[in-house]
Amino acid sequence: MTELFKREFNALWHSPWQLALISYIPLIGVLALWWLFSAGLPRQLPVAVVDVDNSQISRMLTRQLAANAVIAPQSYANEAQAIEAMRQTQVYAMVVLPYQLKKDLLTAKQPTIDIRYNSQFLLVGKLLSSQLQLSLAEGLTQIGQQRLLLNGANKATVDVSLSPITNQTTALFNRNNNYVGFLVPPILIALWQLLSMLVFVNSLNQELILYQNRYYFPKQIWALIATKILFYSPIMLLHGGFILLWLYHYLGLPAAGALVDLMLAQLAMLMALWLMVLVIFTGMRDSARSVSFCTALFAPAFAFMGITFPVNDMPLLAQWWRLVMPSSHYIDSHVSVISYGVELPHVLGQISNYWGFLLLLPFIVFFANKAKDVPKTDLTSSDVNQEVS
């Protein structure tokens, strides 16, 4: 085993790409993704405003939208131009202030203000939907107050008449609505899973022996696999631990539970990931196809975590796809520890959900043994030397 560890270290040392994957690429990726969301909350999102009424009230509502830090209103002459701008992603939403808006408001009619947003951008769309309604509601409330006062209503009862019931929404685990604490952790976990997969696949690709246009494994493949797991698991766990320390110690994001419990969950996630990679690699026995298939499988991991979209509302195929991603199982433990402060027994219970990945072991054994069945008499001397080395 010592010789195999030396062999793995030498292979790593002579592979610039593999060295980059375990050293500076994860650090650059983590810091770059954090920097993208470091503002905490999206601001100055472009919104198309079509003012058909062009009255004092419509201009006041436009100023009310501009006063919101999230919204950056842009004027358009007609609705068709605004719709085209949404299709070109020049704006994320549009507001149409209808004709005779002022007249309808002053005569106690109920005009319709058309609000549309691009739901393809999930978080941006939801944020603009709520902020647009909030800003317009504040402007219309001022108009309602003036109208009631002009009709002789008591000033003390105006607010009660306009808003008899007041709703308050408080985010339990994200009081400041900070997107860093909400989005960055699952995004970094998805990145960490993808990089871990690439590291393991690249290491396994070094063991392929090409013979008569077919790839085979060396006879000591099981010892090599065990060496790679023992060699790369601590390295990738260091990067996983760095993510936790960066977020919840250096940046000071709130964490209700112990980060040590999450390190245990990360280890279980890595073991499940290695099993997934092994069954794909041993089944395909092709470096390019293995990397391509694994990348296609794990690249959309963030979307399937259930952070930005409810899991129960996903199509059935997406829910099955989610089950084969180790990161989807890990994120449950992450949210439980960070938000709810659960302790180790609960985390161990969640880790037991990985038992399904053990069903992959028979397939790995079958594919690996099948790939070792090479007729000895057909091997050339160069093939033998490559296998021994």
Describe the structure.
It comes from Shewanella phaeophyticola. By secondary structure, this protein is α/β, with parallel strands linked by helices. It contains 17 helices and six strands. It has helices at residues 2-13, 16-22, 24-36, 56-66, 79-87, 101-106, 122-150, 155-162, 179-205, 221-250, 259-284, 287-298, 316-323, 326-340, 344-351, 361-371, 381-388; strands at 45-51, 71-75, 93-97, 114-117, 209-211, 214-216. The strands form two sheets. It has a four-stranded mixed beta sheet with strand order 2-1-3-4, with helices on both faces.
Secondary structure layout plus pairing:
Elements: H1 2-13, H2 16-22, H3 24-36, E1 45-51, H4 56-66, E2 71-75, H5 79-87, E3 93-97, H6 101-106, E4 114-117, H7 122-150, H8 155-162, H9 179-205, E5 209-211, E6 214-216, H10 221-250, H11 259-284, H12 287-298, H13 316-323, H14 326-340, H15 344-351, H16 361-371, H17 381-388
Parallel strand pairs: 1-2, 1-3
Antiparallel strand pairs: 3-4, 5-6
Helix pairs in contact: 3-9, 4-7, 7-8, 9-10, 9-11, 9-12, 10-11, 11-12, 11-14, 11-15, 11-16
